[in-house]
Write the structure tokens for this entry.
Amino acid sequence: MKYYITTPIYYPNSNPHIGTAYTTVAADAIARYHRMIGDEVFFLTGTDENAQKVFRTAEAEKMDPKVYVDGVVEGFKTLWKALDISYDDFIRTTEERHHAVVRSIFTKLYEQGDIYKSEYSGWYCTPCETFWTENKLLDGKCPNPDCGRPVELLKEESYFFRLSKYQDALLEHIRTHPDFIQPHSRRNEMLRFIEGGLEDLCVSRTTFEWGIKVPFDPNHVVYVWLDALINYISALGYAEGGGYARFWPADVHLVGKDIVRFHAVIWPIILMALDIPLPKVIYGHGWYMSKDGGKISKSRGNAQDSFELIRRYGSDALRYFLLREMQAGTDGAYSEDGIVERLNSDLANDLGNFISRSLAMLVKFRSGLTPAPGQDCPLELELKELSKEVKRNTERKLDACDPAGALEEIWRFVARCNKYVDETAPWALARDEQQKERLDTVLYTFAECIRILAVLTAPFMPGLTPRICCQLGVEESVISWREADQWGILAPGLAVQRGEPLFPRIDISEFTSKEEPETAGEPEFEPIKAEIAFEDFAKLDFRVARIISAEKVEKTDKLIKLEVEIAGVKRTVVSGIAEHYAPEDLVGQRVILVANLKPTKLRGITSQGMILAASHGGSLEILTVGDRMPGGARVK
Ligand code: ME8
């Protein structure tokens, strides 16, 4: 079977955050599950770069827009790597492969009369990249409940797309395909919206040049949503590409509830007009909300740095939290305390503890070798029954794009495993020679439960699988979804080992404590150097430099190679900060660079400048400025 799943392509006008991470991690878990059941999977993500708001942000940063988006896109890719996202393709809408498809589709729709030229007179919300008619505005502002920002008046010649012509066909499709828009509450919203009547959509702009030019009328650039939605087929090489023939239609477009309307109205109508099949499912999940009830978003400034969260809790625990806390059909509550709570209770207490105590007993009572089991008793039969039920339900939940529901099921099995340990009390069996065979059965069952848990958790926490396999003394090839409810898979005689705790408990105050550390043995300050003349100081040129990428210099402990941007120009700088910063924590930071220092070679790399850092008593902190300052700004 083939399986094609997509995330939205995100605007690279700011770095990714926990919200964008949620959709990507959820799509990743579903894609991984489908690979495990043997499907041929295509998992697509990417960035939506031709938006006016992206252009405006670059302009505000005084940067060439392409240089700007290149830097932000690197940040997306670095985060996806840190979160173990297994995408098969990353499409950028500035790529020619995408432009060519958009141009040909726009021309085709024009030639067949579905796009026509007229004049647009109305309002536009740039943050939402949405056209609004006067009567839809709320107090003269954007009516989107998450936005409410000022709109701009537009009066320009534009091309229009005949949405109205396809209104009835779309309604018919939604009514006859009950699973097309999910969850069903969103389907009902969409039906009501379409029944209210569709107006033709303005699909070109003339007041700026950033974007894809209309091929037969280059004063116009294609409206960003028309352009963006086409990514789902341009990435497959539409219309001739083998990927298109193999994978279209998509099985699921996973999106946030904010953009269901674009996917459930504009996208199907484009496809209908092109006479190609519609995607099978558009799933609109809820939002992660902060404690104060606002949506987590870059513009609200309430998004925590995802790299820092990964550094603190690990990619698996962050993935687990994100997937577990967003219940189907509702919004999810985001807080760092919430991550710690899930980590300490579900991961450390329930899962980690079961694995570590059962392995400890295998080590203690059977010298770490899995015994051959004897006869099953009702307790084992009950576990076996439950494993079948849990596997079935997990599959059902993942088919319904509900990773939280799937994890809830899996944790029913975790809870049962812990109860099994208490009920069988192996420590008591070990004291009775008559119970040797019973103890063998119980200990073997422990090992099988651990294997089953390694299988079931693999799509959600891919970093955990090899760690469990290592403790269990098996190759990763033993991780087979088909065998998640089969028993007797592990050969007796495996050498298990009790390794590091899989999820050490975390004390949140470690990260939130404001208390100063003990002051005993204060380090000494370096003496101040000899005076210099102002003219000497004035020779130094300090600039804000935005870090685009960072990587450790191979075979060194201290050096990091940075790519920085100053006034739209890239430079390489080698800095001795590797003992204090992980490379991924540096991307996106705006540091202070001594910009006119003579280049020097470090480990064969030419370093063009030096970044400033404060250091005292063995700790070091780089000097940074906030994002109001573009790369290239003078520091005096
Ligand atoms: O809308 N909680 O891009 P975008 C959960 N480029 N998910 C969230 C979230 C939150 N607080 N915040 C964002 C666009 N998301 C267009 C898409 S597709 C052809 C074009 C996720 O960068 C969620 O998936 O604004 C949402 O739909 C998406 O990020 C919006 O990303």
Observations:
- The first strand starts at residue 2 and ends at 10.
- DSSP finds 21 helices and 25 strands in the chain.
- Residues 8-11, 19-20, 22-23, 48, 228-229, 231, 255-256, 258-259, 287-288, 295-297 surround ME8 (CB under 6 Å).
